[in-house]
Amino acid sequence: MAKKQTVRVKINSQQREADVEPRLLLVHFIRDTLGLTGTHVGCDTSNCGACTVVLDGKTVKSCTMFAVQADGAELLTVEGLIQDGKLHPLQEGFKQEHGLQCGFCTPGMLMSSYALLKKNAQPSENDIRWGISGNLCRCTGYQNIVKAVQYAAGKMAQGGAK
Amino acid sequence: MIPPSFEYLRPKTLPEAVAMLQQHGDEAKILSGGQSLIPMMKLRLARPGFLIDINRIAGLSYVKEEDGLLKIGGLTREAELEASPVVRTRYPILLDTAHVIADPQVRNMATVGGNLAHGDPANDHPATMVALGAQVVATGPKGERVIPIENFFVTLFTTALQHEEILTEIRIPAPPARSGGAYFKLERKVGDFATAAVAVQVTLDDKAVCQKVGIGLTNVGPTPVKAKKAEEFLRGKKLDEGNIKQAAQLAADEAEPSPDLRGPVAYKKGLVKELAKRALSRAVERASGK
């Protein structure tokens, strides 16, 4: 077994650290080592985007990155979206607009949408579809996901959540 | 899927990284964006004993025009290339290309250098760089070596890079006036490898006659294909509809695709012809300032 290395991250505003094998994937670090199981493992081959997290402000597929690479980084997962006990406008949007059915892709969809709205607060439908093009949903046909993101953009434009 | 065990090394400087490559020989692999290497390790198609993570080496990520060249640092992410103002205004072919590589999350990690160094003819930058007549800078124990792109791709997954070398820069000749380029790709869905794709870069003279032309083809051979006959045919000619059509046919003849789930040989050749037509037409439009 390869020598373990210490990985320190700030995840959802909390400082965490653990000694891990270099081959440990970031998604397993998040789920198994840190116990944050909101991030899902879908295809495990970098296609589906269910494992998407925000790393230093950018979306990455956590199944295609080693935990050691994230040492020193700031991470945001679906657990970190809630603010002061209130759902993030995106989470509210997915609920209001039926942006999910089975829910498996939802954490990844939320994180991609979150990064999109940070960059582009008033995205067009095309921008949204492009923004979530790395996330697959096998239930909804995407229509309601697009509406959910539009709902959140509208809500955020009225002020409130960041 | 869990990749095989490996030792993880994180050099802070380029000389340190090169020394690690020398020390561990072909047991070592460079970890750049990891978007091809990590999936291959998970599928156990690659089993490096040592991973040398170059992501913390400063100064390997940039896009700038200098000395008549566009210089792209080896560690530049696809997303950074896509966002670069100089690329957006002066190198539409690179913007076309970066835009259709994988998906947003992958582009946040994947690097331009890795896209070339991986030596996969299904990747998109190889054909683009062939069309642009790029040069690749390899840094090794003896310093820098400049490799013309025509000599870079040896065969499937094999490049001219030596074990102790790292791809540190890509150099593209700055386009003269009346130049334009385009990249046209057909993929089954967002994020897929190309069924086929065509990269074109042209320079016209003041009478709209073709002075310079580069044509590269994606995923229709063991390396990116430089469509030399099509290029030869177009040089010195007007890029009108008839000539474009003939050149597109020549490019299709030069493609050597393999049949697979993406389609049979005849379909892929037909696709090269159509995509070449479209890429040439778009490149001419852009070169004419339309």
Q: What's the CATH class of the largest domain in chain B, please?
A: Alpha Beta
* Proportion of beta-strand residues of chain A: 15-25%
- Structural class of chain B, by secondary structure, is alpha+beta
Q: Could you tell me the radius of gyration of chain A in angstroms?
A: 16 Å
- The helix fraction of chain B, in percent, is 25-40%
Overall 3D shape of chain A: globular
What's the pLDDT, averaged over the residues of chain A? 96
* CATH architecture identity of the largest domain in chain A: Roll
**Order of strands across the biggest sheet of chain A?**
2-1-5-3-4
As a percent range, the share of strand residues of chain B is 25-35%
* Portion of residues within helices of chain A: 25-40%
Give the helix/strand layout.
The complex is a heterodimer of chains A (about 160) and B (about 290).
Chain A lengths: L4 E7 L2 E7 L5 H8 L18 E4 L2 E4 L12 E3 L12 H8 L9 H14 L5 H7 L11 H15 L5
Parallel strand pairs in A: 1-5
Antiparallel strand pairs in A: 1-2, 3-4, 3-5
Helix pairs in contact in A: 2-5
Chain B lengths: L6 E3 L4 H11 L3 E4 L5 H6 L7 E4 L9 E4 L2 E5 L4 H6 L1 H6 L1 H8 L4 H6 L2 H6 L7 H8 L2 E6 L2 E6 L4 E3 L2 E2 L6 E8 L5 E8 L9 E9 L5 E9 L6 E2 L1 H7 L6 H14 L10 H23 L3
Parallel strand pairs in B: 1-3, 2-3
Antiparallel strand pairs in B: 4-5, 5-10, 6-7, 6-10, 8-9, 11-12, 12-13, 13-14
Helix pairs in contact in B: 9-10, 10-11
